[in-house]
Amino acid sequence: MMKIKSFFLAIVAVMAGITFTACSDDDDNKSNYEIYQEAVTNKVKAQKKNNKAILLVAFGSTWDQAYQAFDTTVDAYKQQFPGYDVFLSFSSAICINRAAAGENVAPRNFYAPNYWLNAFGADGVKYDEIVVQSLQVIPGEEYTRVINYIKDFANNYNADLDDEYLANVKLKLGVPLLQDANDDVTAVAKELNALYKEKAANGVVAFMGHGNPDSYDTYKANIRYTQLETALQKYSKNYFVGTVDMMDNFKTNVLERMQKAGIKSGTVYCHPLMSIDGDHGHNDMAGDDDAWDETKKSFEVNDEGEVEDTSWKMFFSHNGYTCDNSTMIEKGLLELPTIRAIWMNHTKEAIAGEPLDYYHSKNPE
Question: Residue 152 and residue 98: Cα distance in Å, rounded?
Answer without folding.
Answer: 25
